[in-house]
Amino acid sequence: QVQLEESGGGLAQAGDSLRLSCAAPGRVFSNDDLGWFRQAPGKEREFVALVTSSANTYYSDFVKDRFTISRDNAKNTVYLQMNSLKPEDTAVYFCAVKNRFSSDYHVPKGYAYWGQGTQVTVSS
């Protein structure tokens, strides 16, 4: 079982920045594709961003140019830098390790392991 530990969530005002981190003690990340999803109350979990093992990145349209995903393999950590936050970014944010045999990077079923989530609340 892989444990993922998110941190960095909290309260922010519109226009602020937050950086989320996700670490996996005991797991070597270097061969994994790593993603961030979010889930707002009453809504389905939705794709935010992905960084592949070769450091290629993919983003959903609603965070493109505002959020940046990155990874530090030496620290087994993936980050999500969130700038220009909006109230509609309010959600629980989850990091996940993509299933190596899946091409579905933009849907939850493509991921094998999940963190417990960290709350991000953005006020207007």
Give the N-terminus to C-terminus distance in angstroms. Answer: 39 Å
Q: Classify the beta-strand content into a percent band.
A: over 45%
Poorly predicted ranges (pLDDT <50, ≥5 residues)?
none
The global form is globular
The biggest beta sheet, please?
7 strands, mixed
- Helix count equals 0
Q: Using only CA atoms, what is the Rg?
A: 13 Å
Number of strands: 11
Run of helices and strands: EEEEEEEEEEE
Helix content: under 10%
Classify the secondary structure makeup into a structural class: mainly beta
Mean pLDDT: 95
Description:
There is one protein chain. This protein has 124 residues and is mainly β. It is built from no helices and eleven strands. It has strands at 5-7, 10-13, 18-23, 34-39, 46-51, 57-59, 67-72, 77-82, 91-98, 111-114, 118-123. Strands 2, 4, 5, 6, 9, 10 and 11 form a seven-stranded mixed sheet that branches. Strands 1-3-8-7 form a four-stranded antiparallel sheet, with no helix packed on it. A hairpin with a 5-residue loop joins strand 5 and strand 6 (57-59). The protein is globular, with a radius of gyration of 13 Å. The mean pLDDT is 95.
In brief, what are we looking at here?
With 124 residues, this protein is mainly β. The chain has strands at residues 5-7, 10-13, 18-23, 34-39, 46-51, 57-59, 67-72, 77-82, 91-98, 111-114, 118-123.
